[in-house]
Design goal:
Largest sheet of chain B: 6 strands, parallel
Shape of chain A: globular
Distance between the termini of chain A: 28 Å
Number of helices of chain A: 8
Helix content of chain B: 55-70%
Largest sheet of chain A: none
Shape of chain B: elongated
Structural class of chain A: mainly alpha
Strand content of chain B: 5-15%
Number of helices of chain B: 15
Order of helices and strands of chain A: HHHHHHHH
Oligomer: heterodimer
Strand order of the largest sheet of chain B: 7-6-5-8-9-10
Helix content of chain A: over 70%
Distance between the termini of chain B: 15 Å
Radius of gyration of chain A: 19 Å
Chain lengths: 270, 425
């Protein structure tokens, strides 16, 4: 049963990706709408596939690398769709859906490594992890948008427009979309981190305050807050702010990988 | 029934002739009413734009006679000598007239390939004619089809998506940076025709603040009055360059009007907000070194001309796709027309046969007095039944014929074989 939904998810995301690319290339509204519909279908199937994994582990699927990656992909899809609806802009889909699909495929085909049981449980902890992964999804989206901004800005500066530039969102809209996704990331990472402290506090005798993950998270939070402010007001607005956003996401990836795997004793895949 | 079109456009007539034959809204209505009241056409519609004047109509007989009468009418209505007018006129009938209108609506017949305005003009002409009750079922269907194809071509091809003029290309580029221009400010330097063109397009985009600047205050004040702009004093660069997001320069000057230090100071005072500069002056008005400043986008006339050229090529490459869509809609209309005609032809044929039956019985039964009135009615009813049965099979075959050309040929054959005398009478 779960296998069926995995296949349906891959199919829906694949078709959606093709249609988003078709929309970017042709600009036909009907293709764009179809891409969104398929994206919603993929999201629903992905949710069922995640549910299957959650039932098998009796928890939100963040215990292992596969589950975390799949959950990240799903939350990225949710964030993207919200952004698409809020800003009424579909062309970004051609750049985001491949990432969602890649995470889902990696989660599906990566070899299973049985993970040791987590020391902390409960709803607050589950929310802490889910919100943290949602924050990473928001930051990933802002990174994609910033890269799009840099690419389009470069083409406009060198005056080599080609066919695609006319279809891309305006620089101003890309900036606004990036701000929105950073805002989602900032709020969720702040709340998620606070909930993390609360969850740990509830576990008798557990104190993680000196975990390097906290320091890195704080740095990430500060850097994104700086981006949020700088991109709107000062000489940093425009391409410089977008470069900062990309740099921040590199730090997030490092926090997600190097810090979790080698420095943090209590964080695993989130 | 025949659809007829008589008209002229920028390809067939010089502007002097087009000016004489153009219709105002009131003239279009009056001409349509006169054409109907004089019996020249049963349904009429006048489409008049700056590049074309066309009269579409429906005539009861398919004998191409109405076009001549229509040409004479145009000549009289606009008081233009036939010798002067006739060489510029084109006549199209039925499928060709339908195809022509659909191509016009799709922007394929426009001076600026794929322009969007023509669709609005076709819509206005149709609504006006419809309100005056000068159209009928055929022209209603025809113009609804024209509006449909116009929209479809613009939605499914790139014929109308890319800017084709230097000014509009520049404004589209500004939209690539700022999105919609409603909340933006623009400064236009100069008050010549190019500046006016840009100002008009900026106003069309509902730009929030429009500032104008020119050496000669008199000219620019006139432009500002016309387009609701605000005139700034020439030379006050530090204050003038601080606020606008878009600056367009089309001034006749030997030296650069906007220099790098000016823009650097402006960018510092505006907190590095993006600035789009369109240099439409020849020689150039803006120092090219300005393009190196952070968050400044500078496009010269040559840059914009290159974009326009690319767009023109791209639009041209969309023509076959648009033409194929037009042909689809022409076939759809002809199919509708054929089915309407088929129903009409069958009704006429039935009436004709029944009339012949009545005449035949009256003649043959005249001397047969042994038949009572009831018997005669029965014989009549039996013969009617026979007629219906004889018609049933061919009618069914005509209705179910899938190939449009064959369907039309069959309808024409029936008309020629059985109804030609009746139509003439």
């Amino acid at each position: 049963m779960n296998q069926l939904f995995v296949i349906l998810t891959v199919l829906a995301y694949l078709l959606s990706m093709g249609l988003y690319m078709g929309f970017l290339y042709t600009g036909k509204e009907v293709i764009g709408r179809l891409a969104t519909v398929l994206m919603f279908m993929g999201l629903a199937c992905h949710y069922v596939a995640l549910l299957g994994r959650a039932r098998a582990t009796h928890s939100v699927p963040y215990h292992d690398l596969q589950g975390s990656m799949s959950l990240f992909g799903w939350l990225l899809a949710v964030t993207y769709l919200c952004l698409e609806i809020y800003h009424r802009q579909r062309t970004v889909g051609a750049f985001v859906v491949p990432i969602i699909l890649a995470f889902f495929l990696a989660a599906t085909f990566a070899p299973e490594h049985p993970a040791p049981p987590l020391q902390v449980h409960g709803v607050v902890f589950a929310l802490h992890v889910t919100l943290s992964i949602l924050a990473y999804a928001g930051f990933a989206l802002s990174c994609v948008l910033s890269l799009m901004f840099l690419g389009e800005e470069r083409l406009l500066r060198i005056r080599k427009l080609g066919d695609i530039v006319w279809r891309l969102p305006s620089l101003e809209l890309l900036e606004r979309m990036s701000h929105t996704s950073v805002l989602v990331g900032l709020v969720t990472i702040a709340v998620g981190t606070a909930l993390g402290f609360l969850a740990v506090d509830r576990q008798a005798g557990q104190h993680w305050y000196f975990d390097p993950k906290y320091i890195v998270t704080l740095v990430v939070l500060l850097l994104y807050a700086a981006y949020f402010q700088l991109a709107r007001t000062t000489a940093w607005r425009g391409a410089r702010a977008s470069k900062l956003c990309v740099f921040n996401f590199v730090l997030v990836v490092l926090s997600f990988t190097v810090v979790n795997l080698f420095l943090s004793a209590h964080h695993r895949y989130f | 029934m025949e659809i007829v079109l008589v008209g002229l456009n920028f390809r067939t007539a010089p502007i002097e002739v087009r000016e004489k034959v153009s219709f105002s809204g009131e003239q279009a209505q009056r001409a349509s009413e006169e054409l109907r009241s004089r019996g020249i056409l049963e349904e009429t519609l006048v489409l008049s734009t700056c590049n074309r004047s066309e009269v579409y109509g429906v005539h009861a007989n398919a004998n191409h006679e109405s076009a001549g009468a229509l040409s004479s009418f145009l000549s009289t209505f606009h008081e233009v000598l036939p010798d002067q007018l006739n060489p510029s006129l084109y006549h199209h009938y039925d499928h060709d007239a339908v195809r022509h209108l659909f191509r016009v609506s799709a922007g394929l017949e426009s001076m600026l390939l794929g322009e969007a305005e023509i669709l609005g003009q076709v819509r206005d002409a149709y609504l006006r004619a419809h309100e005056c009750h000068v159209t009928g079922p055929v022209l209603n269907r025809l113009f609804q089809g024209a509006l449909e194809i116009g929209k479809r071509v613009r939605a499914e091809t790139e014929l109308g998506t890319r800017p084709m003029g230097v000014a509009s290309a520049g404004i589209k580029l500004a939209e690539r940076i700022f999105g919609k221009l409603q909340d933006r400010s623009a400064l236009v330097l100069g008050a010549g025709p190019i500046s006016e063109q840009v100002v008009s397009q900026l106003r069309d985009r509902k730009i929030k603040n429009l500032y104008l600047m020119n050496r000669s205050r008199e000219k620019v004040e006139e432009l500002a009055r016309q387009y609701d702009g605000k005139v700034l004093e020439w030379g006050e660069w530090d204050t003038s360059l601080k606020f606008p997001d878009v600056i367009v320069s089309a001034v006749g000057a030997q030296d650069f009007v906007v220099t790098r230090p000016m823009v650097e100071r402006a960018m510092a005072s505006r907190g590095n907000r993006a600035l789009f500069l369109m240099d439409l002056g020849m020689p150039r008005n803006v120092d090219p070194a300005v393009a190196d400043i952070y968050n400044v986008y500078l496009y010269s006339m040559d840059d914009l001309a290159e974009i326009v050229k690319q767009n023109r090529d791209a639009r041209q490459s969309e023509v076959p796709k648009a033409e194929s869509l037009v042909e689809d809609h022409v076939a759809k209309f002809i199919s509708w027309q054929a089915s309407v005609e088929l129903t009409g032809v069958l009704e006429t044929l039935r009436d004709c046969l029944k009339q012949r039956r009545a005449d035949f019985l009256q003649e043959r039964l005249a001397g047969m007095n042994h038949f009572s009135g009831e018997d005669r009615e029965k014989i009549g009813a039996l013969m009617d039944e026979l007629i219906e049965q004889l018609l049933l099979h061919p009618a069914e075959r005509l209705r179910t014929e899938k190939e449009l050309r064959r369907k039309i040929q069959n309808v024409e054959a029936i008309r020629d074989l059985y109804l030609s005398d009746r139509e003439k009478s």
